[in-house]
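FAQ: What does the model actually see?

It sees only this:
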Amino acid sequence: MPEGHSVHRIARQFARNFVGKRIRLSSPQGRFVDGAARLDGHSMTDARAVGKQMFLEFDNGLWLRVHLGLYGAWDFAGDIQVDATVASANGRMGQTGMRGTGDAVLDSAGENSVRSIGAPRLTRLRMAEAEKVSVEPDGFPPDPIGQVRVRLLADDVVADLRGPTACEVLGPDQVEVAMNRLGPDPMLDDGAAAEERFVSAVRKKPTPIGRLLMDQSVVSGIGNVYRAELLFRAGINPYAPGKSLRDEQARALWRDWAHLLKIGVSTGQMMTMDDLGDEDYVLAMRNRADRHWVYKREGLPCRICGTHITLEEMAARKLYWCPRCQS
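And it is asked to produce this:
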């Protein structure tokens, strides 16, 4: 499932390329005809991400809410301009600060792609790479490919949505309710009030912290990858009840989430390892297996203590952790 950094990048692409333009909406798949008709021909006025959900506002006061879920993705074509704040991985972000490393590094799975963002993108990019063909379509707008739930078309850019968990038109009051149900998102507010909201929610619950970090009403945007990596970086057992965490532990989790999320939005990749040398950093940016501490490393030795990384199940999702470093 795309995590918070991906959805923020999508929202910024919409803000840069679609906001202020008259948009034609259609549903090539046929499952969103009525919803598309309510927005068709109106200008987009805002694009916002809150955690894993995105909200697009139009000049008739209606909003399009999209939750990609496990299988959703946006495909972009045309004269797509990357937002200046997330333009490339030409800076190195981490606990040691930022320093330049040259051009953007596209990883082997296309994780920082600006043309296709979401769950299915990996298969398409790998197919294109294997066949040695361009992923750019001929002509504009390109024909819809596959089951496109909704197409947003401007004069020079187009976005196709496929496979979302949610795609609906909401009024202003409904949008406010939907946003208020979500936990704090440090890309929107990393101030003291947001931190306090997170800490209070965690420390009053007996629920394991590994579950709480995935609860979007507690904190927005964290998925399976960031959950595993945050807990390892903090040395916290994923089964520890939230209320058992010390105040400073909960605050450190929130601040580390803000830190990693900003890196993810800037680079397009879930880089969770700090203090890498230049060669190791480039390798990690190119290969997902080299930029995580525990995620998808089951059976391999912990990078710190050598204990084999454990794979278990928590709330029907895979849980990766080190039984020694996180004891």
